[in-house]
Design a protein that fits this description.
Elements lengths: L2 H9 L4 H11 L3 H11 L4 H4 L7 H13 L6 H10 L3 H11 L8 H12 L5 H21 L6 E2 L6 E7 L4 H5 L9 E3 L2 E6 L2 H5 L4 E7 L10 H19 L1 E2 L4 E8 L4 H18 L4 E3 L6 E7 L5 E7 L20 H11 L7 E5 L6 H9 L2 E8 L2 H14 L4 E4 L11 E7 L9 H18 E11 L2 H8 L5 E10 L4 E8 L4
Parallel strand pairs: 7-8, 7-9, 11-12, 11-14, 12-13, 14-15
Antiparallel strand pairs: 1-6, 2-4, 2-5, 3-4, 5-10, 9-10, 15-17, 16-17
Length: 499
């Protein structure tokens, strides 16, 4: 049905609620929205009049349609209707509609209402709707009034850190810390104290940096009680001691737990609101542009370990990672591969990646130890273009060639081949990978210097090892499990012509 038909039925007061709902769905299409705007010709009185209808669902859908029309002149009328609205479940929709208009002039009123709601005690029945209204108000206030982010100042403070790492190779990260550092091994990382955060930030083999909250090990109880424990148990003090800037801190809350998804969502919403209330809005929940993530990790007893992830700490080590492909290896993993293969790599090596993708393996190889030359080859043109973007950001000279490795020729041999070998996919089954890996090993013999090294990451190590039986010139110097569940492995091979 066309917008004009729905509009006609609404004007005739025929099944108004249902026609509003269907019209609202229809104008999600831009062409239909334009058709309705043309039909209305700037006169929205058919919908503004409905904001006084007795049926709250009529008011709800009418105001949402007004919002979709993005008419700035309606802002004051929508606000007046919002103030007059008595039905809780509708009020958030007025604010959502306002967010699609230019309503900067309403900012003082929006702030006052947000403060009023944040300080109001509500019943259990009212909580869900008031929470939705607060979130909508907050998002709109932040649209016009987001203060500058805080600046982290605690680089020389004594800080307790958790570095999340590959669980099979925690020692590779631990080994990069000063010898006197007291380290506790965790299942997925390492925990320690430092007064030299700048040095820790240079380590490339961890995936995340988390901060335990001093003096606060476990949370338990209701959302309100856990929020009190967080805010008054040291979190706000820790943030203020290590940052310059005025409140509020913008945060998001994440819960790592096996609890049902609906329970987890409900807990996040209730606790986020309680944290704002307990902190007197010195901490504000937002879904974008947040400065920290409060992460609650459930233990076996059902209590939560509180951790903070700070985006206020500049971390540039993987800033080059702008372009990716679905098959791209993560930079932290590529850095780990180089650390694992480190004893077999050499300075000023000539390095080749025959399946270079977006260039991550080559960039991390260059970061690990200086190279003479680096070459990346990929049959996919998109990969080569993305690799060039990343490499320019990394400021590393790498030669990229869009070609099939098996057609590649070069005037000199390479000291090292480092690569993320293709794995199973829509176009690659076991048989095709056996052929590919066999050709890779055969071709690489022609590309490597005697005693040259191959650093190969694969998600199907059994296929690579099976093909190695056909090439005795390759000696397995090292094999490391990267992910036990996936059985992915890193193999370091030495090519020795003597065989």
């Amino acid at each position: 049905m066309l917008t004009s038909n729905y509009l006609e039925q609404i004007r005739k007061k025929n099944n108004v609620r249902q026609n509003l709902i269907e019209l609202k769905q229809l104008i999600r299409d831009d062409n239909q929205k334009k058709a309705l705007a043309y039909e209305l010709a700037g006169d929205f009185s058919d919908f503004t009049a409905l904001l006084k209808e007795e049926d709250p669902k009529v008011r709800k859908n009418a105001v949402l349609i007004l919002g979709e029309m993005e008419c700035d002149d309606l802002a004051d009328q929508i606000w007046d209707a919002y103030e007059a609205e008595q039905t809780l479940f509708v009020k958030a929709d007025y604010i959502k509609s306002l967010s699609k208009c230019e309503c900067r002039q309403l900012l003082p009123k929006l702030k006052a209402r947000l403060k009023e709601l944040s300080e109001t005690k509500v019943t259990v029945e009212e909580e869900k709707h008031v929470r939705a209204e607060i979130f909508a108000l907050q998002a709109l206030v932040l649209k016009y009034n987001r203060p500058k982010h805080h600046k982290f100042t605690g680089f020389d403070h004594e800080l307790e850190l958790i570095l999340m790492t590959n669980r099979n190779h925690r020692e590779m990260t631990a080994a990069q810390l000063p010898d006197e550092t007291e380290i506790k091994m965790l299942s997925g990382g390492i925990r320690f104290c430092t007064t030299h955060l700048d040095d820790v930030l240079k380590i490339r083999t961890y995936t995340e940096m988390l901060f335990p909250i001093p003096g606060l090990r476990l949370l338990e109880g209701s959302p309100d009680h856990m929020a009190k424990q967080l805010v008054h148990g040291g979190m706000l003090r820790f943030l203020n001691e290590n940052h310059a800037g005025n409140p509020p801190f913008y945060f998001r809350l994440e819960i790592k737990s096996s609890m049902a998804a609906d329970r987890k969502i409900d807990l996040v919403k209730k606790m986020s609101l309680a944290i704002e209330r307990e902190s007197a809005r010195e901490m504000v929940n937002t879904t974008s542009g947040y400065e920290l993530e409060i992460r609650l990790v459930a233990n076996k007893e059902g209590r939560f370990i509180p951790l903070l992830k700070l985006s206020t700490i500049p971390d540039w080590k993987f800033a080059y990672r702008k372009e990716v492909l679905p098959t791209s290896v993560t930079p932290a993993n590529a850095a780990l591969f180089m650390a694992l293969a480190g004893p077999f790599l050499k300075k000023d090596a000539r390095v080749l990646d025959p399946f270079c993708g977006t260039g991550t393996m080559l960039i991390e190889r260059a970061r690990f130890l200086p190279c003479n030359t680096l070459y990346g080859i990929d049959i996919l043109e998109e990969a080569i273009q993305k690799a060039k973007v990343n490499t320019e950001l990394a400021n590393i000279p790498i030669h990229y060639i869009n070609r099939n490795y098996f057609d590649f020729r070069h005037e000199y041999h390479f000291d090292e081949i480092v690569t993320n070998l293709p794995g199973m996919g829509k176009s690659k089954d076991t048989e095709s990978l056996q052929i590919l890996y066999d050709r890779f090993l055969q071709k690489s013999q022609k590309m490597l210097e005697n005693n040259g090294i191959v650093v190969a990451y694969t998600t199907v190590p059994e296929i690579l090892k099976k093909q190695l039986h056909n090439y005795p010139a390759y000696i397995v110097e090292k094999e490391a499990i990267i992910n036990e569940r996936e059985n992915s492995r890193l193999l370091v091979l030495r090519f020795h012509i003597g065989y």
